[in-house]
Amino acid sequence: MSDLKPIAPAEAKAQYLEAIRTEKAESTVQTREYQLRHFVRWCGEEDIENMNTLDGRDLMNYRKWRREDGDLNNVTLRSQMSNIRHFIDFCGRIDAVPSNLHEKVLLPSLDKYENRRDESLSAERARSILDFLERFEYASRDHVAFLVLWKTGMRTGGLRALDVEDYYPRKGALELVHRPDTGTPLKNKEAGERMIALGDAECEVIDDYLERKRENATDEHGRDPLITTKNGRMGKVTIRRTAYRLTRPCIYAGECPHDKDPMDCEARTDYDKASQCPDAVSAHPIRRGSITHHLDNDVPKVAVSDRMDVSPDVIDAHYDAASKEGKMNRRREYVEDI
């Protein structure tokens, strides 16, 4: 204890956030800041004014308090306590707490499947949506946005980061570039930069969009976004709403599986309420479905990992939505002749 330097919880939080700002995406920093607000609030309620006094029992009490205060499930609590462990580890490095105190941050154990995100867009539904767009909204903004999300499996942040100059029609490729200074960071920063191959059919749609349908607009930094609105670059909220709208069965299939009258369904008549449709999904399930579709079509996991900027372990844990039978069938060709 004698080697520790006194520091208030709020000051330790501020130093931690400043330290990670150079290595984490701004959205990650904001998430950590929000979560640490609760820790600082708890310290205030417990009259903990100096980080030096924290011990393992305090951290156990915080975990119990946070679960009850936030009504958190195991998955969310584990995520938040993992961030607390990272914070306490940092505090140990600046002599605010004992150097091994972070090891006493206990994470809730999870059931094998508890941390999976099961919502996924199937390849069949994606094909139906693309058929609808090709027939009725060919080379529109929505068509290009959905086509790129599905064919490349990129994140929404990657989609909105694309500029016209990042499209290479002769090479049949899109390039993702980390440009945090002009408002389009990539989740994994420079490590997420990559070239993504496109097929001839996808290039034809993008070419026609650029020639006939793209709004001639620049963003606030003077850049030329690939996908534009009247106000400039397509925002994350617009992308999310587009995903919800296009994945409603009444749009691409012309019928409601829940037997609702389209005239009386707010999810059908009000675009802002499209997310209320039980079958509508946001952009992330599109990414998950795309990753699964690539794997189902025998694309090697390492290639999917590079194309989608996600590690093989994370693919296994969170993104591969195939059933047990589907995964068996993928392996079949490798063992049939043994």
Automatic annotation (TrEMBL):
Pfam families: Phage_int_SAM_1, Phage_integrase. One of its GO terms (biological process) is DNA integration. InterPro entries: CB, DNA_brk_join_enz, Integrase-like_cat_sf, Integrase_catalytic, Integrase_recombinase_N, Integrase_SAM-like_N, Tyrosine_recombinase_XerCD. GO terms for molecular function: DNA binding. Keywords: DNA integration, DNA recombination, DNA-binding. Residues 116-332 form the Tyr recombinase domain. Coiled coil: none annotated. Residues 7-92 form the Core-binding (CB) domain. It comes from the Archaea. PANTHER family: INTEGRASE_RECOMBINASE PROTEIN MJ0367-RELATED (PTHR30349:SF41), PHAGE INTEGRASE-RELATED (PTHR30349). This is Tyrosine-type recombinase/integrase. It comes from Halobacterium litoreum.
